[in-house]
Amino acid sequence: MSVWTIALLALLPPLVLAVALTWRGRPGQRFAAFQLATTIAVTILTLLTFATDQASVTDLALTLVLLSLPGTLLLSVFLERWV
Predict the structure, then answer these.
(1) Where are the transmembrane segments (predicted)?
(2) H/E element holding 20?
(3) Residues 9, 21: Cα–Cα separation, whole Å
(4) Which of 14, 18, 36, 42 is the most buried (most CB within 10 A)?
(5) Which DSSP string corresponds to 25-80?
(6) 3-class SS of residue 5
């Protein structure tokens, strides 16, 4: 097991906690947890690039970064209108 794989596995519990808080919690907590989950997911995908030596996974991380802003804006509109 490489150092990259160990770092990747170490980030899985915080990702699970952030996703759980996004699913349940107060609206402010959901918003912050969504941002944290996105950041952790991008970090995991970047570490996966180094762990597997496949540069194509970097494209997924960059796509997630580009889609996180519109997703955050949609979540904030949803929370403002319906919650």
Answers:
(1) 28-48, 60-79
(2) helix 12-23
(3) 20
(4) 18
(5) S-HHHHHHHHHHHHHHHHHHHHHHHHHHT-THHHHHHHHHHHHHHHHHHHHHHHHH
(6) helix
Give the max Cα distance, the chain. Answer: 47
Residue 32 contacts residue 22 (beta carbons within 8 Å): no
Q: How far apart are alpha carbons 79 and 74 in whole angstroms?
A: 9
pTM of the model: 0.84
Rounded distance between C-alpha atoms, residue 7 and residue 44, angstroms: 8
- Exposure on the CB side of residue 41, measured as CA atoms within 13 A: 19
CA-based angle 28:40:8, to the nearest 5?
150
The Cβ-side half-sphere exposure at 55, using a 13 Å CA radius, reads: 0
